[in-house]
């Protein structure tokens, strides 16, 4: 008797080590998008914190923040919707 979650095939919510960023579902893949964008967002926010901690005028740090957030949101949308899947 085979159970619905047998050892042969991974469950829907289970991590697949052979394809960690693969999107099997037709919908949005928010987890893949968050994993792809998080390092770049962390680098950008770290840059802003570093500028503020050096004592440079806060205006420069806040001038860098909108492009960092814009690029992160744009990358999140691209990765979560598989926007470029037909072109690769």
Automatic annotation (TrEMBL):
Residue intervals passing through the bilayer: 33-54, 60-79
Superkingdom of the organism of origin:
Archaea
Q: Which residues form the DUF8142 domain?
A: 6-88
Q: Which InterPro entries match?
A: DUF8142
Q: Which UniProt keywords apply?
A: Membrane, Transmembrane, Transmembrane helix
One Pfam entry name = DUF8142
Q: Where is this region: Disordered?
A: 1-30
Protein name in the entry:
DUF8142 domain-containing protein
Source species of the chain: Halobellus ruber
């Amino acid at each position: 008797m085979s159970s619905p979650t047998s050892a042969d095939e991974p469950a829907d919510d289970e991590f697949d080590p052979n394809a960690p960023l693969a999107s099997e579902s037709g919908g949005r893949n928010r987890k893949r998008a968050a994993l792809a964008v998080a390092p770049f967002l962390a680098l950008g926010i770290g840059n802003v914190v570093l500028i503020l901690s050096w004592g440079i005028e806060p205006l420069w740090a806040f001038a860098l923040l909108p492009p960092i957030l814009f690029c992160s949101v744009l990358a999140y949308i691209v990765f979560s919707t598989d926007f470029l899947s037909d072109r690769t």
